[in-house]
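In response to the reviewer comment on reproducibility (Comment 2.3), we provide here a single inverse folding case reported in full, input and output, so that an independent group could reproduce the run without further information from us. The structure tokens appear first.
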């Protein structure tokens, strides 16, 4: 079924939302929320009915519901102050207040930028300069501009592909781009890393993946620890990088910001890795780390997130990687980056403060700076600013 309202088209067959003819990135729960509102156009939808339809009757917090409603408003071009499309009736429910036209036949809309999109991923292997085997995956629009999503700490190509936390991001980016992702050494499907690897090894890993995937000129999306790696790569390979996006990243690791953060007892994650609670959602340190990294997750979602990262690598490998990435430093290379750069960062990130992103934005000549109102270090699909961040990334990458 297709629903037209305001300047939007909601297609429940393809699970896509268009606004002014352009596809809008929305995570699954937000799409379902819009579907329920469209199906009940002109009627007040109670919170209980919304929970039954969107969350299958599971217990969810008011904060989670509000976050999805806010994300739905953003996706359709509305906001909480105007409420011109989605209206909230306090203590009663929400309503789609604009006229809705529905029909089973296709309606006119601007074509999606997709020409040929792979709905699955192909996993391959390559070997880095020191002999480490690295797994990488190719998905998305095979005719689109290549986009390398640089590897972050504790990743797993298969688990993330099948996760509602990450898959919406891959699908949204893959609508327009040939998406290449890889597992960091020591995690996922790649070789174990041991305790002898520095930032240059990780730059070599990025080179090995790009070369194996046949990427001559491509864009990079870097987050967390992959930011300093990508900055170094961009400074050394200016002709290969078309655009650089740094999302929730930093130029200097936590151990270089005063030293105390990486000491057992000071950092819950390091303390966890020195203990035996890795992967246990009921372990206090594990729960504390998840809460700091993604504070807006519900208790249930935090549990699933902990289980996902625990399946990505062992506690021993996570510790070795963490010790290495806490000492990554690309501050001396920022001024050498000539690639158009966008820096996106959550305002209230407690693990990598906004000042770290400002350092990058000020250090890379001409870099653009985009702050989002979030506290989540990792931008997962449930983040209230997910659509804003994905939209900003796609708009920046689409520029000539």
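Designed residues, in position order:
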């Amino acid at each position: 079924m297709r629903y037209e309202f305001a300047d939007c088209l909601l297609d429940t067959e393809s699970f896509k939302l268009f606004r002014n003819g352009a596809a809008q990135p929305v995570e699954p729960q937000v799409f379902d929320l819009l579907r329920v509102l469209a199906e009940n156009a002109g009627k007040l939808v109670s919170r209980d009915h919304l929970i039954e339809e969107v969350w299958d009757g599971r217990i969810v917090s008011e904060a989670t519901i509000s976050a999805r409603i806010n994300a739905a408003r953003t996706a359709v071009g509305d906001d909480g102050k105007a409420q011109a499309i989605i209206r909230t009736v306090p203590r009663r429910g929400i309503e789609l207040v604009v006229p809705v036209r529905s029909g089973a036949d296709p309606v006119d809309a601007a074509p999606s930028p997709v020409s040929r999109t792979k709905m699955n991923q192909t996993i391959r292997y390559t070997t880095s300069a020191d002999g480490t085997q690295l797994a990488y995956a190719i998905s998305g629009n095979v005719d689109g501009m290549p986009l390398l999503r640089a590897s972050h700490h504790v990743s797993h190509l298969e688990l993330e592909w099948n996760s509602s936390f990450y898959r919406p991001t891959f699908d949204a980016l893959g609508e327009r781009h040939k998406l290449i992702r890889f597992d960091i050494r020591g995690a996922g499907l790649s070789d174990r890393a041991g305790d002898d690897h520095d930032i240059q090894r990780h730059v070599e890993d990025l080179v090995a993946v790009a070369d194996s995937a046949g990427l001559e000129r491509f864009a990079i999306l870097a987050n967390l620890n992959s930011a300093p790696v990508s900055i170094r790569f961009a400074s050394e390979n200016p002709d290969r990088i078309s655009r650089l996006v740094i999302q929730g990243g930093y130029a200097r690791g936590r151990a270089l910001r005063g030293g105390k953060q990486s000491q057992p007892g000071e950092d819950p994650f390091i303390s966890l890795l020195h203990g035996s609670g890795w992967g246990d959602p009921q372990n206090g340190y594990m729960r504390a780390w998840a809460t700091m990294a993604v504070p807006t997750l519900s208790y249930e979602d935090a549990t699933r997130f902990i289980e996902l990262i625990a399946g990505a690598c062992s506690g021993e490998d996570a510790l070795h990687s963490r010790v290495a990435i806490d000492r990554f430093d690309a501050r001396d290379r920022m001024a050498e980056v000539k690639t158009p750069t966008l820096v996106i960062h959550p305002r209230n990130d407690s693990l990598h403060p906004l000042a770290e992103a400002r350092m990058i934005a000020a250090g890379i000549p001409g870099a653009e700076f985009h702050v989002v109102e979030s506290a989540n270090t990792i931008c997962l699909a449930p983040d209230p600013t997910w659509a804003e961040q994905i939209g900003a990334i796609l708009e920046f990458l689409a520029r000539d």
